[in-house]
Design a protein that fits this description.
globular; single chain; Tetracycline Repressor, domain 2; about 70% helix; mainly alpha
């Protein structure tokens, strides 16, 4: 049992802070919420940052609202943890039969399903406390994501497109970030949401190639299995569509001074590198390309901050 408790999970970075510094009794719960694998928190946070950035450009803010950034960071951390915990409860019998996930806390016997459920509720309550710091529109929009969160773990049992449902769920922050600043919905927000969904389908297809053999044996579905050897052309399509749609969102928000559009060009080059160097038969290569999407997201957000500081475009 102690070896399971101390095992470094396959998709966690060696020497991560949970395995090095966290109390041993806390490690199963921290691993349950993926605190040892922060990439998911980044990918949940980035659409919030993008939406906040575009909204602040649209409203003429000269700098990001730091309080909102703190709230979004905390919210992304705890809600990603709650979602992963819920997902692991639902998938516990499958996880026990997949090499990459067999040592996760529930299949390894370190945490019971009931304990995990209580933990997910506790994390969700923290997330709710964060959410109610925003305006009423944002609170209502945030609560609206619960249905998608509930159904997502079941999608790989019924469709080859669970990555699309993940995009709808995981990129809800694009709606939350925009409404937090503006207090209302808007066309730039909707365009950004679509762009984020397309991006998610692309990068999560890369991630899914790690498990495709096990998924096929278990009867689970994914875009990795659907696209197969044609994955790269599909990725080109999704990344191009995502960045083009994000460009539309930027223009609608008034981000026409140049930095955001330049950031999208850099993001396109990064996406091209991902696809060109991707080896779908190498799980480690897939994991590295998947993780690199944090950098793509931060490139675009950094460009938004620069544009914000330049002030509104003059006609």
């Amino acid at each position: 049992m102690s070896s399971f408790r101390d095992a470094v999970l396959v998709d966690a970075a060696p020497g991560n802070w949970v395995d090095r510094w966290a109390p041993r009794m806390a490690r199963p719960y921290l691993k349950l919420m993926r605190a040892d694998r922060p990439i998911g928190t980044w990918l949940l946070l980035i659409p919030c940052l993008w939406a906040q950035g575009l909204a602040e450009i649209a409203t003429g803010a000269g700098a990001p609202n730091l309080w909102f950034l703190v709230l979004f960071a905390i919210g992304a951390f705890v809600m990603r943890g709650a979602g992963c915990t819920y997902n692991d409860i639902v998938d516990r019998h499958y996880d026990a039969r997949v090499a990459r996930t067999a040592l996760r806390p529930i299949p390894a016997g370190l945490v019971t399903a009931r304990q995990a459920f209580v933990f997910a509720i506790a994390l969700s309550l923290v997330g709710f406390v964060v959410l109610i710091q925003f305006n009423l529109t944002t609170v209502i929009v945030g609560i609206g994501s619960l249905g998608l969160i509930a159904i997502y773990p079941f999608m790989k049992r019924v469709t080859h497109w669970p990555q699309a449902v993940l995009g709808l769920t995981f990129k809800w922050g694009a709606l939350v970030g925009w409404t937090a600043v503006t207090g209302s919905l808007g066309l730039p927000m909707l365009a950004l949401y679509v762009a984020c969904i397309l991006w998610t389908i692309g990068y999560d297809t890369i991630y899914a190639h790690q498990d495709k053999e096990d998924d096929a044996v278990l009867g689970l579905k994914s875009t990795a299995l659907k696209f197969g050897e044609q994955t790269k052309p599909w990725l080109v399509g999704f990344y191009v569509a995502a960045l083009a749609t994000m460009g539309v969102a930027a223009v609608l928000a008034g981000a026409t001074r140049g930095p955001v559009l330049a950031g999208l060009v850099l993001a396109a080059l990064h996406g091209a590198w991902q696809i060109r160097t991707l080896d779908i038969s190498d799980a480690q290569n897939c994991l590295q390309r998947f993780r690199s999407n944090r950098d793509l997201g931060l490139i675009v957000y950094g460009a938004m901050v620069i544009e914000m500081m330049l002030g509104p475009a003059r006609l």
